[in-house]
Amino acid sequence: MSLLEIDTLAVQYHTLHGAVQAVRGVTLSIERGRAVGLVGESGCGKTTLARALIGVLPRNAAIAGGRVRFDGADLLQLSGDALNDYRWRRIAMIPQAAMDSLDPVYRVGDQLVETMRLRGGLTSPQARERAERLFALVGLAPGRLRLYPHELSGGMKQRVVIAMALALEPQLVIADEPVTALDVIVQHQVLRTLRELQETLQLSLLLITHDISVVADLCDDVVVMYAGRIVEAGSVREVFAAPHHPYTMGLRNAFPSLRARSARLVPIEGYPPDLASPPAGCAFAPRCPFAIERCWHDDPALLPTTGGRLAACHRAAEADALRTQAPQAFARLEATGPQSVRSGAPPAGGTL
Amino acid sequence: MNHLLEVTDLRKEYPLQSGLLGAVMGSRRVVHAVNGVSFVLDEGGSLGLAGESGCGKTTTAKLILKLLHPTAGSIRFAGRDVAGLDGSDLLSYRRQAQFIFQNPYEALNPRFTILRSLLEPLIIHEIGRSIAERVERVAGALDRVHLNPPETFFLKYPHQLSGGQLQRVVIARALLVDPVLLVADEPVSMLDVSIRAGVLNLMRDLSRERKLTTLYISHDLALIRYMCSVTAVMYLGTICEIGPTEEVIEHPRHPYTQALVSAVPDPDPTRPRRPVEIADTVPTPFQLPAGCPFADRCPQVMEVCRHLRPLLLPVDGGVRVACHLYPGSTPRAAEGDGAKLEPN
């Protein structure tokens, strides 16, 4: 059985302009000891999904349906103390900009020790000893325990935050954009450390990022989200080698590579839909060069394709053929502009 | 080809707020944001300034645009010293050198409609004879950045547009006044991945079409590889390597460039990974070391690096490197006698 099983989870935000459906029926499981990368653009619901898992949604958000099972227990049914037992001890989260959440007036070591004493029930000497081991684990000298946050660099603070997340030996670590504010070289080093720890401690890792290259570099599996849904999932190697969903195909040509001289980049024309009134059909249809009549009114389900992979596309069976045409097809769309959702008409050039 | 822009030994220092402790200790610390930057940019050329945050790349851009005043050094634009410009000459320089900001959400006045924001530069620079003609120009510019039909954007406010659309408006505004030099500071870092390519392609097409000279500032080497023919890598306020983009990225010479290139994550998971072995200590732009600014993180540091600052000198492939590993960079006369040299 998987460690974490998310089943058709839906989350809504209540705003002045009505309900915004940030997560729209996400089904996803994470195996023990796997590193899973969750990628998507801002506003696609990836952070909301992560926060829903451990019950730390903002006040105006509510779970609108679905189930989350962690190690057999239904997390969404738990509340108060029962849920608190899971947080940090079994599921630890490294939130966005976590390094800025260190208390500036306490030494980082004391903050670490306090966590372990209060949440993990360790005695002070036990906690001190473990704090030193944790620091060694994330590559910090024990002397750094005595420093205040302002005396540490961003990369070191991020290492402290990782040590904190690992303090109570969780089974699952959720890291939300853990290195975004850091410089490239430091990013690389912190991510490496995170990956090594995940491997040695046999943790499950859910890494949330907008940077598809980071996932390619670090994760075993990748889950691609678009407009509140998962559009594609599978092993990193397979998904990057041969994507099955047009959105993933489009992303491949949408950013320049450092390792190879890029031919002209091909953007994905248009913008993600407004989730206050999500489209009836596939949310990607207006930006998809391969959309057919059916895509405009029938939202495709996330279904197995080949090789244990999943894709939410009516034309997934034709993926190999579509992929070869993708660069030209997306480029044609760049020239003509995205299709109107409201017209409801099958787009020009949608057929092959 | 003519040099459009010549930057020579540019420096910008900021005195640090010393506070009570500083007053007692009598220290006067200075942040060396830009510490002796020199380069030339040819007419129609494209230069990428790469480096980590705090390396001085944005400060360099602001100095070039005369948004900041340099502590020392000179900037010559089309043969004229930028520092000496004032009055109508300065106004004309401001027209010819346009800036595209990192954050499109902050680059437009939230209380102005798009039309008003775009009319403003035409009024200031007295371009177009009548309102009708100016509106016509604005419509043309919006059309050129693929905001169609332009009229539908006229009366919108910035908050009604997405980030990608706003950045297109900002580009349209820059182009309205027929600039010669375009400086773009992280032009797509605030935009989502699927939107970025469109904005980058647009800027590439426009600069070719109008033969613009461009200066891109980015921490993203892949972006610079896509956009620029020449790349300069900055570290702690100085250029440590500069040369043709392909050379700098394919065969990085400076250990810092090597680390930077190998730290960039690769979207191809099958490609073998190269480790980066440098310390993740913070570089501080005050109390600069006497020697090479990169010495305390450099995996190949030598004794000479600690006390003698390498000069940016040519090696092969049209590249210039500031590193003692390359014999050209060590000033021969002063070798082994760092004391005689200026500390920086």
UniProtKB/TrEMBL annotation, chain A:
Coiled coil start-end: none
Compartment annotation: Cell membrane
Topology relative to the membrane: Peripheral membrane protein
Cellular component, GO annotation: plasma membrane
Protein name (record): ABC transporter ATP-binding protein
Lineage: Bacteria, Bacillati, Candidatus Sysuimicrobiota, Candidatus Sysuimicrobiia, Candidatus Sysuimicrobiales
Superkingdom in the source lineage: Bacteria
Major location (coarse): membrane
GO molecular function, one term: ATP hydrolysis activity
Family: Belongs to the ABC transporter superfamily.
Residue ranges constituting the ABC transporter domain according to the UniProt record: 4-252
GO biological process: peptide transport
Native organism: Candidatus Segetimicrobium genomatis
Keywords: ATP-binding, Cell membrane, Membrane, Nucleotide-binding, Transport
From TrEMBL, chain B:
Top-rank lineage group of the source organism: Bacteria
Keywords: ATP-binding, Nucleotide-binding, Transport
ABC transporter domain location: 5-261
Keyword flag Ribosomal protein: no
MF-aspect GO terms: ATP binding; ATP hydrolysis activity
SUPFAM superfamilies: P-loop containing nucleoside triphosphate hydrolases
Listed PROSITE patterns: ABC_TRANSPORTER_1 (PS00211), ABC_TRANSPORTER_2 (PS50893)
The family this protein is said to belong to: Belongs to the ABC transporter superfamily.
Family matches, as NCBIfam families: oligo_HPY (TIGR01727)
Protein name (database record): ABC transporter ATP-binding protein
